[in-house]
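Appendix C reproduces, verbatim, an entry submitted by the partner laboratory led by Prof. M.T., so that reviewers can inspect both the input and the predicted structure.
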Amino acid sequence: MPDPAQFDHYLADAGPAALVIRDHLMPIDGPDGVVFPATFAAGDGFPGGYNIDEFPDGTNVCLIDSVGSQANRIEPLFMHENYRHLVPQIVIRAGEKAINLLECGHRAGDAFARCSQLQESLKSAFQRALRGDFEPLAKIAPTSLVFGVWDSRDTQAKVPRLVASTIRAFNVKRLTRSAVYIPPVDYAALEVFSEEDKAKAEGDSKNRLAQRGFVHNPASRAHGGVIATGGIRRDAILSLAALRLLRAGSDAQRSLALQRYILGLAMLAFTANTCSYLRQGCMLVMDPQKPRESFEVFASGERKPLSLLHEEVLEYAGAAAEAFGVGESKTVDFEPWKVTQEVQEVKSKRRKKAEPEE
């Protein structure tokens, strides 16, 4: 049986401020392969497309996978057979769909969870967290304490992210690509529509004939991925300083059990092998020429080599979970009327705000 105090040095104030991992990655077809970064919608002065920051010296950094995206990729790990016993499996049923809370992008703060039968218990847990007691939230959604959560639509309770992972590419060369769709027959020649309609539709991607695939439809100079001449890197941090702030109120023993439990989950997430497939055109693997770098980093700036085996952490996490007492797994219903209620509340607040003061 693993020693529950095995990693207590990480919970001590004199312990490391954080654990850090740096993985050097490359495209599946080699270091000079083309990779497709995430694309983002336009807004706040950003034109949309790839997120590439350019600097005066001519260098640049391209975001391949954001911290939020990485969290949402790692969190479902706890639905898998070897890990599911470590956290409550909360399933929300909506019609024919059944969605695990671990799959909700905003975790315990997600609108889907808030508008379900979990509403009151989650609200109470967030209110307790605001008063310094994180145990109720750990009983419902412990991974919300690992990957962070913000109850932005209700109590405003905010829990910092303990595990943060981001993938970036350095000094990228941006590529474009072009394509054209050619229909198998000439629909105008078949008198489905006129030659005039055909001429108007070709080259106009917004035309209904083009949208439905009845005419030639070129797509020119679309995003074609990037080549990372400066390499691709995954940087992950486990903030122990933030973890030490988690308490179960004023109960020192329960606080220690809580911290050990969350530490076990966080170290599992931190050391897990992340999915190589990020999106179409973006498969990344470890660079065999550049081994993983991992350190314990102290507040003084001192860095010590870190050796943390995932299998060892799994045993510890199991013991910590058993000592803490994993929350109840259950299936609850989504309640659509709560969506209507929330929308009405928003409308009412806006109306009151717009009314002139007497």
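The chain has two domains: 25-170+229-337, 172-225. Additional entries are available on request from the coordinating office.
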